[in-house]
Specification:
Elements lengths: L23 H12 L4 H10 L4 H12 L6 H14 L8 H17 L3 H8 L7 E2 L13 H13 L4 E2 L8 E3 L2 H13 L3 H11 L14 H16 L8 H14 L3 H19 L4 H16 L3 H19 L4 H16 L3 H19 L4 H16 L3 H11 L3 H4 L1
Antiparallel strand pairs: 1-3, 2-3
Helix pairs in contact: 1-2, 1-3, 2-4, 3-5, 4-5, 5-7, 6-7, 10-11, 11-12, 12-13, 13-14, 13-15, 14-15, 15-16, 15-17, 16-17, 17-18
């Protein structure tokens, strides 16, 4: 079996073969096959000019196949003219800059929205980008026919690859070097920030409630790497960003990917504070989510500090009788119990239970969580009879609480 990947550490499970550039002969054969031309002399000169780099050769071959009136010599002259203007210290080969520029110009000539779509795709991860992100009623979305035309035009010159996730979810992939070249182009034209923010807005299709709702996981999984890429690019700073990052963090937390979830959750809080203010109840919710994550990492002191902060914010903004405040109290009670402050845990658990029972009823999961932590505290305090009575009143078995 042969796998192509950018991963380098296979831990002895496979033999890695580095593929950097093709041999001159292989590059010429590839370019002749890809372009459908038979001018071997011209192909040798063009392959040399492109440094025998597979990605640049792919662009050139696709371009020539779709432009039968163009000769190798003319194409090479165009590439070399663009190479002279390419950034010399970019994170991608100069040959890619030259072929990319010609390819994007051709795609834009064939479809009005091709360059626009490329300006968005370049911010996503080099994985399958579902096309539903660019459809619908969201601001910045495309007309379906324009989107189809743009995808076709970009694919025809090998700037993207159509790569459906499944039969019902069309998607495309974009090579990381092409993405870098496009980002450089956007920065040069002073359009990077606007395009990046638009990409973030479209990624807001990430589902909410992912921590507790398994039904949302397939779509969340499709978008997780892309949200992380937007975060890593440093462009996720707008007012819509905190919710996007928090939703993605909740999914990663639910999957046990704690090291990926934590920076997203912290950034959601930081950006949320800038846009909403530190005393906003939504910021309190995100602090509570961070507390939950830190508790799962057994970083209990940090978790307690954050849940107390969430309680302070929510208590002032919503009042002590609000269900959110009670939910935070339940979390605090659990932390107090885990750190042997059992009397305090009972007090917080009982206060939460009164509010949650009144708000949600005795059968609700949140109410039962408060019952469990309160009864467990009573057991540790040696008040087993009270604990059993409390569990019996709400139909919670000792096995559940243990």
């Amino acid at each position: 079996m042969i796998l192509t990947t950018r991963r380098s550490d296979w831990g002895g499970r496979a033999t890695a073969v580095e593929v950097d550039v093709l041999t001159p002969e292989a590059a010429v054969d590839f370019l002749l096959a890809r372009s459908g031309w038979d001018d071997r002399v011209g192909t040798v000169a063009l392959a040399d000019a492109l440094g025998h780099l597979p990605l640049a050769l792919e662009h050139a071959g696709a371009f020539l196949r779709n432009t039968p009136s163009l000769t190798f010599a003319r194409y090479q002259a165009e590439v070399e003219r663009r190479l002279a203007r390419a950034p010399r210290h970019a994170d991608y080969p100069v040959s890619v800059a030259g072929t990319f520029t010609l390819a994007i110009e051709k795609a834009a000539a064939e479809a009005a929205q091709a360059a626009d779509l490329m300006s968005l795709l370049c911010w996503f991860a080099p994985e399958q980008v579902p096309l539903y992100l660019f459809e619908g009623e969201a601001e910045g979305a495309f007309n379906p026919l324009d989107l189809d035309d743009a995808v076709t035009a970009l694919a025809s010159v090998s700037l993207i690859k159509t790569d459906p996730i499944d039969a019902d979810t069309p998607a495309v992939t974009l090579h990381r070097l092409i993405a870098l070249a496009e980002r450089q182009r956007l920065h040069t034209e002073d359009r990077a920030e606007a395009a990046g923010q638009r990409a973030v807005a479209l990624a807001a299709a990430h589902p909410k409630g992912t921590y507790n709702d398994i039904a949302t996981w397939p779509r969340a999984n499709q978008l997780s790497a892309h949200v992380q890429a937007l975060f890593a690019a440093g462009i996720a700073t707008g007012a819509d960003t905190p919710s996007l990052l928090a939703n993605a963090a909740s999914f990663l937390h639910a999957c046990g990917a704690y090291s990926l979830a934590e920076p997203l959750q912290r950034e959601a809080i930081a950006i949320g504070e800038r846009h909403l203010g530190r005393d906003h109840p939504t910021v309190a919710n995100w602090l509570h989510n961070l507390c939950s994550l830190l508790e799962d990492l057994s970083r209990l002191d940090e978790a307690e500090a954050h849940v107390r902060e969430a309680l302070d914010i929510a208590g002032k903004a919503l009042g002590d009788g609000h269900p959110n405040v009670a939910i935070f109290r339940t979390r605090l009670a659990g932390l107090l119990l885990r750190t042997a402050r059992v009397g305090e845990a009972e007090v917080e658990g009982r206060a939460a239970l009164v509010v949650l029972d009144a708000a949600f009823g005795s059968e609700h999961e949140r109410t039962r969580q408060a019952v469990v932590v309160t009864a467990d505290a009573l057991e540790v305090l040696g008040r087993g009879e009270e604990a059993r009575a409390l569990r019996g009143r709400y139909g919670v078995s000792a096995a559940v609480s243990g």
